[in-house]
Amino acid sequence: MKTCKYGTNRVIEPRGVLPQAATKIDNTMTIYDNELLIDVITLNIDSASFTQIKNVCNKDIDKMAEMILDIVSSRGKMQNPITGSGGMLIGTIKEVGSNFPDQTLKVGDKIATLVSLSLTPLHIKKINSINISNDQVNIEGTAILFESGIYAKVPSDMDEHLVLAALDVAGAPAQVNKLVKEGDSVAIIGAAGKSGVLCAYQAMINAGKTGKVIGIVNEEKQIKQLNELELCHDVILADATNAMDVYSKVNKKYPEGMDVTINVVNVQNTEMSCILITKDTGVVYFFSMATSFTKAALGAEGVGSDVTMIIGNGYTKGHADLTLNLVNNSPKIKSLFEKIYT
Ligand code: NAP
Questions:
Q1: Closest CA to 112 of 136, 76, 79
Q2: Ligand 1 atom having least distance to the Cα of 195
Q3: Strand-pair category, 185-189 with 110-113
Q4: Chain-centre distance of CA 71, in angstroms?
Q5: Residue 179: how many CA atoms within 13 Å on its side-chain side?
Q6: Are 136 and 168 contacting, i.e. CB atoms less than 8 angstroms apart?
Q7: Which residues pair with 66 in a beta bridge?
Q8: Pocket around ligand 1 at a 6 A CB cut-off
Q9: Cβ atoms within 10 A of the Cβ of 28, count?
Q10: Confidence (pLDDT) at 244
Q11: Phi-psi category of 119—alpha, beta or left, where left has phi over 0 and alpha has psi -120 to 50?
């Protein structure tokens, strides 16, 4: 079979689509010469997907394991059929195809894939454990990276689970770095989450002394947490699914609206909160996988908002280095991540 750098030769159905859009891909673990075979250590399931699985299974670990195994055996990849999202993995290299672009990679090198599990051929032999509080699933299994797939070597001086967690959301702080300028007012919805704290840290740097970073959280204890981390100038308690609640609380303090709003929540129906608090000339960055294009587009039109809306691309050049440097440069974030992920 002719091999394709994007892995389309592994698409089973529907024909003609790329692996991410496929409902089933071939997860036969014999590689083509332009692929990489990985012995998987841990999956980091995307937060929107993990939250959906956790809720449907009432936090029952055995049921969650069964659901994950079912998804992978029917799709050939870990793509939640409800959220459509995947996650990332870390593992060690088992085999390098003779035409894989990077021939410096060696069997045994530890890497994190930087492409979504929603397009990565995966075979799970056994689930060893599920960490219900941090979205990570330790498995015995193998995965394949296509020729076009990107990855990062896991630094030997950092914990692999922490690296996996940070790289899962590396696109978010890196995009904040591109979007936020000196003096901007920035709202981060879901600021106490994993990507939330990374985005807040980056926004504080970019907005500088004349800017303002506001965190929006849904639990009282997250206010204390963000204040201790010194990651926001102000933290507002509001439910992001209640657009008028968010709008009235933010508008009362900041009637001029936000220049940039970053959405990093893991639940549906938060589009309008972001749109309502952002200036007409501003930007909303939807990193959340629970975002609906329809709700955002028609919702903005419905309230006469001319805001610019950006789909949260998980990749931007240099995102992995920026994110790992960020964690290493912030002792407070590093120690928070060590507590949660190691
Ligand atoms: P996370 O650590 O679980 O953080 C999500 C945060 O949202 C949590 O602090 C959560 O609070 C908060 N939240 C939930 N419901 C809320 C509500 N109604 N109002 C206000 N805050 C609320 O997730 P993450 O790993 O940072 O991921 C964030 C989002 O990015 C997810 O949607 C994930 O799927 C997405 N993602 C996107 C990409 C991409 O390529 N675009 C890549 C990776 C992840 P509680 O803890 O109290 O629930």
A1: 136
A2: 26
A3: unpaired
A4: 19
A5: 32
A6: no
A7: none
A8: 46-48, 85, 168-169, 171, 190, 192-196, 217-219, 239-241, 264-267, 287-290, 312, 314
A9: 11
A10: 98
A11: alpha
The ligand 1 atom nearest the CA atom of 216? 20
Residue nearest to atom 4 of ligand 1 (CA): 193
Amino acid of residue 52: Q
pLDDT in tens, 163-216: 999 999 999 999 999 999 999 999 999 999 999 999 999 999 999 999 999 999
pTM: 0.95
Which tokens is 222 given? Answer: 């997250």
Q: Nearest CA to 229 among 90, 101, 102, 339?
A: 339
What lies within 8 Å, CB to CB, of 329 at 6+ separation is none
Counting Cα atoms < 13 Å in the Cβ hemisphere of 60 gives 7
Residue-wise pLDDT for 310-337, tens only, equals: 999 999 999 999 999 999 999 999 999 9
- Using the Cα atoms of residue 175, residue 49, residue 222 and residue 273 in order, give the sign of their dihedral: positive
Q: Which residue has the tokens 């079912």?
A: 70
Rounded distance from Cα 265 to ligand 1 centre (Å): 3
Rounded distance from Cα 2 to ligand 1 centre (Å): 40
What are the residues whose beta carbons fall under 8 Å from the beta carbon of 210, sequence distance 6 or more? 182, 183
For residue 253, the CA-to-ligand 1 centroid distance in Å is 24
Residue for token pair 């399931």: 45
Output the DSSP codes for 174-236. Answer: HHHHHH--TT-EEEEETTTSHHHHHHHHHHHHHHTTT-EEEEEESSHHHHHHHHHHT--SEEE
Give phi and psi for 156, each to the nearest 5.
-70, -20
**Which of 45, 59, 264, 341 to probe ligand 1 with, by most ligand atoms within 8 A of CB?**
264
Q: Which of 226, 112, 86 is nearest to 165 (CA)?
A: 112
